[in-house]
What does this fold into?
Amino acid sequence: MTSTFEAPYSIRTSKAAGSGMLSTALTQLDEAFQRLTLDEGLRSIIRQSERELTVAVPIRRDDGTVSVFTGFRVQHSSARGPCKGGIRFHPVVDLDEVRALALLMTLKCAVVNLPYGGAKGGISVDPAGLSEYELERLTRRYAAMIMPILGGKRDIPAPDVNTNPRVMAWFMDTVSMIEGQLSPEIITGKPLELGGSQGRVEATGRGTAVATVEMLRRLGRDPKEMRVAVQGYGNVGFYLAEILEREYGCHIVAVSDVSGGWYNPNGLSLSAINDYLAHYPGSFLSSYASNGHMDRVSNQELLALDVDVLIPAAIENQITALNAEQIQSGIIVEGANGPTNFEADAILRERGVHVVPDILANAGGVIVSYLEWVQDLQWFFWEVGEVRLRLHDVMQRAFEEVWSLSEREQIDLRSAAYMLAVQRVGEAIEARGIFP
It folds into this structure.
């Protein structure tokens, strides 16, 4: 057998990104502990993952060779319910990153009061280097490898970076074939034909849009007068920008993807950009012809634009101590997970920038994943209007709870969100006690 070995990316390059994200999450967690005066026992439980699984994922390539990738699944907490969290395929996935994201998922589910704990999974791989058949084999082998710790009442994965409904369908089919029965509740973010939910694809973007408008209204700002920049024009950024423009009247003045982006202070023609991307699937924004009506911007330049609302919706660690002083927007809504590191967060707080934290702002995805799971368990499905209404209600209620706590304690929204989430997780642990 001819084989090649794909070393984990954490071996081939630095672990700084994942470690930095975990350090930021734990530091923010410790601040919440101090405000809540939790005892050391509870702190120790919440700071650690319940279960961590690292697996080798071998696949046969189209040319007959074998490559081995490294996969992870981390279950942070099941105190409030089954673990819930996405699966990402990305070259920089490592165990520390997955640990951090699982912790954030626990807090995210708690802050919007879903009966879930947090989990996360991923494979250290560049999916662009795989054919569709190789990607399918990778997904199915990974599903089989982590299946012993999954279950509709134990741990329910979902899409994340570089995964989509097609990948979720392969995942669900693998588990169903091994179990010998259809198991749609094992995973969310599936195609509608396989038990997916209406409104799931747009859910994270829609939830972030709701959080943005809730923030604007509390600051007395008219959404129709707001200039918005969106870093990350993938699934989240695409729907977020479209919903803010179409339903709330915001002016989207800048968008970007990994290739860079475009800026027009008077507003972009999103419909033209979207038509181009739909006509040329897989294209980047940099290849769009602007006809002289827009200026090119890099991702870093977009962050520093003179706008009313900045929405980082790409990947983690985009706002750091190196660029926090350059940000001109007075409002930041975190569409991505962990886009602002701890040092930058302190700088923004000192400057009076309003930050809607990721564990609140981008919770729309897990909210509709919960709604999909409920529909799968009942085998009864809702129309898109009902899903959107339920999403809006949960987001609006959660925002009000975080805002009220922030006002009452005179603290920023991130601190309030962490306090509320940690308190709920702590109360669940205390109510359950320690087994045995």
Observations:
- Confidence is low (pLDDT under 50) at residues 1-15.
- The radius of gyration is 21 Å.
- The first helix runs from residue 9 to 12.
- Residues 9-185 form a domain with the Rossmann fold fold (CATH 3.40.50.10860).
